[in-house]
Amino acid sequence: MRLPRRVPWASMNELDQLCSWVFMDEGDLEAKRFAINRLSAWRAVTALPHALESTLSILTARLIDTSETQQNSSWLTLRQNYATAIIRMVNGLVDPLQAGAYARSIASIAAQLGLPSWLVELRHAATHEDLPSLEMLREAARESLTWLLHNYFLPTINPSAPRPSTAPPLRSVAPVLKQYKTLLKIVTRDTSLRKQNQPNIDAIMRDIERWLAEAKLAADFAADAYGWDTIDGNDVGQEDPREKWALERLCDALIEKGALVSLSQKKRNIPSNEFVPLHPSLVLWTPLLAHTHTYHPTFPSVLTTRIVENLLYEQPNTGFDMDVVSLEADESQNDPSFHLALAKWAAWVINAYDNGQENGELSLRKNVIILLAATLAPGKTEGAKKIDVLTALLGAVSSGFTELQKASDMLLSATHPLQPQHWDPGDLTVMNERLRSLMSLDGESQKYTDDLDSAPTTLLPTQGSDIGGWRLLDHHSGWKSCPIGVYYPNHAA
Amino acid sequence: MLGSSSDSEPDVQAKLVLDSSDDSEAEEPQNPLVSVELPLYLQPSRSESSQLSTFRPTRDLNVYELSADEANALGLQNETSVLSIDREETLALLGIYTLTVLKGSVSILGVTLSASKIAHHVFVPRSAPIPILRCASSDAHADLSIYSLPPRIRHNHGGAVVAIQSLDTGVEGLGRVCRVFDGVFEPSRWQRSSAEVIRPGVSLVTHSTRDVLPFILPESWSFALSAAETPPSSADPIPLSVYVVKGPKKSGKSTFARTLLNRLLARFQRVAYLECDVGQSEFTPGGLVALNVIDNPVFGPPFTHPNLPYRAHYVGATSPRCSPAHYLAAVEALLETYKLEVQTSMPDDESIDTRVTDVTPLVINTMGWTKGLGADLNAKIEELAEPTHVFEIIGPEEKGWPTAPPAYDTLYNQPAPSKAFQYTLEAISPNLTNTHFNAVDQRNLNILSYFHAIFPSFTSAPFPTKWETSHPLCARYPYEVDWSQAFDQVILIGAGYEDVIPLEISNVLNGAIVGLVECEPGTEDPVYLDPCGARELPYAQARHPLAPSTSTCHGLALIRAISPSSSHMHILTPVPPAVLARCRVIVKGELELPIWGMLDFTDANEGVAGVEKGRVPYLQWGKSEGLGGERRRVRRNLMRKAQM
């Protein structure tokens, strides 16, 4: 269940009105004062979205600057007001996007946000160097408000309107993976070179982490990534959809030919009895997989799901994926040895990372079996391709687990049509039993969806009608249940 | 969190904690040791599941269903299961039940209960460590039987016999209100097959799993508890004891304080509990510094025993960082109240209770903010409390902060060296902390439990016997309050709240949680000279909070709506009606109603009270479209170049 977020406005109209107070007429100081008062009140209701918090502090600084009654004798106060507002705005926009384990430069995040880079410079100067000039600060305040209008207010008020896409496309991770592969090949062929190359390997690992952080940010702009909530304090434990999106992009790059699965068909076709990837591939890629798993616990699950989906469905590349330049874009997808090698990787990841714990969600292993079952189920197998590969994967994944093995055997067994059953007098009892249990379920739910007229009167003795201005309403008062914050007038009074 | 922490061990995985509010909850990440020589099969070590119950229930061998007559003969109402527990046997029950010890004695949650007429209320959700019932070594008086058991109930010498009854409180309905806790009083999906139902709503759990963990009393705790409760050997009058419990977050501080409270209740008829942790309070929702006087041991997590405080002060936030001086004044005022009104009383010779009646010891639970200003505040509280015993839980090393004592002599006077007994305790093992329910969830549940609770009007039994959870808050009949008659003053406390102008005050109060405060007449200047019939809410900007020495907070209220046209508002509060009229000041702090409390679990379309999803005021479903649409959040575990 996705929780809504608490917002200080009762409806979007209130935000719209605030927006017009702020932006309609720059000279209308009265409107600016309204906006400041409203935002100050909203701040006391619930924590404000950062964009509104910034709007409030910038507006306050400007109002003092533009007031005709120039009370403050010191221009320094004014510069400090402006500077604080701008420092806090840039920090607040950038900080939540430090999504990776390692710090990224503020400038690179700002570029992805479409925030003018000179604002970032100004933030740096105002924090660590001389306080910038009043002229610069005024300009920065104006530019910041404009940015907030286009990037926060307008998209929030008109969610359907397209947002100006200022973000540069996500760079491809493929070159990094290629670099990694080259380096690891050197190291695995000649272990004496390891020490010398270790810093480079570490650097690549960091680069991949950084790329994931960038991808998470880019997820905001990706067309197919919509439909999630912003992560609120209330659902901290929930899986971050941005993280999932970013990991999926990484996995897609890993699945491309030339990454996890070697390009050379000859290499792939080395016969092997075991259902595991070839040893050289394993040695090459496990450090990367392990490192990614350290920081992204959901990585194994994303990777296996992605591989299985790749096997199950033909891959229409989504528009966004085009940005992620694939290593071997045009190779035909119909390549049995490629698919077999991928399936082996999926099986390996499951065996390596599935610890059997379920924790309320399905284990890696079960998840994959369920994905496969949908395609391998009796009656559905006709026409589906890659059946051999899928069957082999299913066997490898369920082997050693009696329960799962039974289930998969059932799936794989020939699709016998169901024998028409003979009517048995006992069947009627069974059916009645089922009906009863269904009915009792209904009664259960009835209990919770009771008629609201029976809302309790707190079970307390009615304390006369009125004590010091307090009067407990009851079913005689005509009060009806309504959302918190809505006043239902009491007509019977 | 950046990833679901589901299937890797905490020490393998560097936790990336996105921390929105509190400055001390961020966890230090482990530096990744990127090794190229990795074993091909990483098998994360699985925490071994341990056996919780060695007791194997067998009907008419060690479990007996009492007939109505048999139960009545024992003085027990309702249907009863009697369990005969052998020495060394353990028993873990999940659910809500009453426990009456009929013969021998059992230990539960670090407390030993001997045969008595008292039916203890035990609340065991999966969200907290599961208490293990164990037959305690029976003392010399074990033969003294209070109950004459039906002859068919067999019990071995040295064993114990207990009666288990279902307890219907409605508290499990909170799981419908706050879905995170849905079904916590029932075995989890993974245990349903092995759990055995003892009584309706009470089941026996055989093994621990990742989401069902046992309560284990660390050795150093057990030692300190014994030392603290040993009465002085001489015939001196009973000493006046004040116990301070301190330590960092997640170290088991409040669990220890609760265990200490329960242990003391074996000797004293009443024990006072001063809550200084305004984020995770034991007996009240957050935001209150409260003094509670408890006379029965509490078995269950905080949300199962909300309690009307003896005296309390509202600080309005889950941390004192915005108003440390007000917080300290509140603690000081409560310590004063304790010394003047609670600590000693006339001995009650009439009572059949064999416990001490004329002295009430005090347990003080401090907050887990133990760095920076938090350390200074805790030190000051310790100084004010003049404790006789100090229990310090040593948590995992806090990085980046000096361990040297805080230099608060510039702020306050140099403290006198403490004469208290000092005990150093180990922190609770992180393997035994349930990671499925985080601090925010627990805090939300405490608030919701409070607003759904029905406190009996009689002050003698301050525990709620019931929770009204068949309806969401939005469907409950509210009080209609005429603020022009009921309130003299509205106060806002919180950083930046002084900027709220009087014209906007009703926007701020609509849907807000407020403290209901009574103050001594004449101690506050009225906002209006003639408040009766005022046209506007009695609010003035930048007022200071009421002095705790002359005021008291009777509880919290939810202003569910304010009339746009008249001087009326609708208020929900569990505070007994008798004191409502005395609360003439309302104080709004940073504490908010959890979003769960604004939803309607009875609305089939996931709307609220018949209003469809997108039209519910003050709530927004779906993703925020704009940039900067999120609240500011802070990362404190980012790795810099030096750490790479």
TrEMBL record, chain A:
InterPro entries: Las1 (IPR007174). It comes from the Eukaryota. It holds the Pfam family Las1. GO terms for molecular function: endonuclease activity. One of its GO terms (cellular component) is Las1 complex. This is Las1-like-domain-containing protein. One of its GO terms (biological process) is maturation of 5.8S rRNA. The lineage of its organism: Eukaryota, Fungi, Dikarya, Basidiomycota, Agaricomycotina.
UniProtKB/TrEMBL annotation, chain B:
GO terms for molecular function: ATP binding; polynucleotide 5'-hydroxyl-kinase activity. One of its GO terms (cellular component) is nucleus. Keywords: ATP-binding, Kinase, Nucleotide-binding, Transferase. GO terms for biological process: cleavage in ITS2 between 5.8S rRNA and LSU-rRNA of tricistronic rRNA transcript (SSU-rRNA, 5.8S rRNA, LSU-rRNA). It comes from the Eukaryota. The keyword Hydrolase does not apply. Pfam families: CLP1_P. Residues 247-391 form the Clp1 P-loop domain. InterPro entries: Clp1/Grc3, CLP1_P, P-loop_NTPase. Residues 1-35 are annotated as: Disordered. Belongs to the Clp1 family. NOL9/GRC3 subfamily. PANTHER family: CLEAVAGE/POLYADENYLATION FACTOR IA SUBUNIT CLP1P, POLYNUCLEOTIDE 5'-HYDROXYL-KINASE NOL9. This is Polynucleotide 5'-hydroxyl-kinase GRC3. It comes from Suillus subaureus.
